[in-house]
């Protein structure tokens, strides 16, 4: 706030109090979308009186203090805070001996804060009395707005503070300065993908049907329509003028194994959820997903207790979830129904809807609880059951990993409820390759390392023994370093995310690099971490996390 308003650092206390007050007015999800102010007062605050910290303030001088007729009616200052966050009063409270005349303040955001600071006396503005911070850190009711106009004894006599009446700004602040060209991304925001595809996937429906693999994509589209018809995802209804339609789009992708071989061509019909209206076509959207540390714990338990763990994939998972809201869908491409006369009324969730992940999670959770499973308190995506044998489930959207000594009965039971694909022994979990043998279980990301080195153009690089050079510190990037990094066509943030993925999945020894490399988040302070870390992962030992099997169970 101080940097944005170009105010001296001596006003840090006012900035802290203002920021604290604003935090108390902001609703949070942990408090059921209520703000601390509402929970304390029981009424919503009048936030229309809030203004930009450090904006220009015109203080109205009461007639009794103007002296004579042609005296100025107001003085100019800078907003540095509020009396209190009690916005349900017409005027801010003041001490008991304050005069009853209100002090009106008009805010004007058209002038920059630097102009106001330049017009003020620099020596006086920088002087801070020793008692200033004691008064500032007092309770909220004793804090008054501080302005540079208070230094004019002729306009504002030395009396107790007055009531303050707030008049909000009429227009938002306009950005008059030019945008720094270094802040404009010159590369693609979406990096290249090597893990899930071995060939370029079509981006549109027409390009898929005109591609060399049009037969495979046509079969994938037909398979998607068959699944939707079998699960009764929608009803074809007559189009009316008051219906708001949600658009559709097709997403094509190829599913590959850890070696990069194409296993399946998939086509997915998705809704354009950006056009949905909150409160009408969707309400809640958050859906939990499994955590990596939970998966690590279950794998370690399976290795220690000599348990099996298999993986199943729920086919067209979202299409099994009933939809509570009324959503009308436009006729998608590939469907022969007349678009001008008919539309689709959704009965089940489809991919792309904002509430689809939550609807699927609630659908699966309800069935698991019905069959005797219980959800873990620490991770809502981990379920366990002790009858007839101990069984643990790890759920990540439509991928379910089963841990237990007798897994087949559960597979048969869930296959009667949902259409699943039995993958068997888990070999690829969340992009991590699993090697399961009779005496140990290990995880590695060799395939991800190779794809990352290809992405950085470092396939022929030499491995290094440490992920970061000793005594290395961040330094400003040179023009040659920036040009070399930009030539890769990737984002610096994407490189940091890759390192973070390594550290959380299989390489915990990279954890200390992530906060150091993520400090700049741009190339203005270039760090060698994104380039050294893939070379370190190429060295081999950090690629694996291994758990030895033993007979017996964890106590």
UniProtKB/TrEMBL annotation:
Occurrences of domain Reverse transcriptase Ty1/copia-type (ranges): 232-469
UniProt superkingdom: Eukaryota
Keyword Metal-binding: yes
One MF annotation (Gene Ontology) recorded for this entry: metal ion binding
SUPFAM superfamilies recorded: DNA/RNA polymerases
Keyword set includes Aminoacyl-tRNA synthetase: no
Keywords: Hydrolase, Metal-binding
Descriptive protein name: Reverse transcriptase Ty1/copia-type domain-containing protein
